[in-house]
Request: fold
Amino acid sequence: MPLSNKTALVTGAAQGIGRGIALRLAKDGANIVLTDINPDKLKDVVAEVEALGRKALAITTDVGQRDQVYNAVEQAQKTMGQLDIMVNNAGIAQVRSILEATPEEVETIYRINVQGTLWGIQAAAKAFKAQGSKGKIINACSIAGHESFAFLGVYSSTKFAVRALTQAAAKELGADGITVNAYCPGIVGTDMWKVIDQRMAEETGAKPGETYKKFVDGIALGRAETPQDVAALVAFLASAEADYITGQCIITDGGIVYR
Ligand code: NAD
Reply:
């Protein structure tokens, strides 16, 4: 198996894309450290990882709190022996006109999406260096990190920032053999899109379900993305097959944004 004897830490792993990534990396042979702010749902994913025959460790962590992210990485090393793959997946969406965004909303989304990714990169890179091992850091970006969307302007700006952090980290850490990349999904049918669709309805007057349908209808491959589609790219980036790829923010969207 491509990830035998590896340990991966996945943030925001209690549901959606993070859960999908955790299960795929476990299928590929990795032991998994699962972190999220939602401890109840994390328990279910622990059971699913263990059912695949891998070790699992759940740690309740808010990625917006630097000390909590460092603690999770330390616990991962202590419990599993070594950390090899860090997936900075946790993130939130906000739907709001550029004209109406409030300081509180902006502070919250930047703390989670941007600072959360930064703390994850820092903690993992320091751990990899201390271990004297090469490692892989994989961040959640988005098609919104390549092209900004109306009413998703602040969210999009956080994903542009993730792209900036990914590129700079790749340049700084290349000499240590640490790769830093990001996955950029399109329209994935998770709870995040339920919230986006509902808020779009409130902001634009669209009917419930209409915004999601409009976006999905625009996908070249004709269907919404699944967490498994995203996890397939992450599994590749986590594997030795991607050893010579760094600083890239790779789109997996079925054909929406072309770069
Ligand atoms: P989701 O809302 O279904 O799941 C997000 C998970 O992150 C939840 O389990 C939640 O509890 C957790 N979380 C939220 N805030 C946290 C915090 N401060 N600390 C730790 N955990 C926290 O979302 P998803 O669709 O699975 O999205 C996962 C990632 O993929 C996000 O970064 C998102 O921006 C990105 N993304 C999603 C889509 C999509 O269409 N769903 C598209 C592009 C990018």
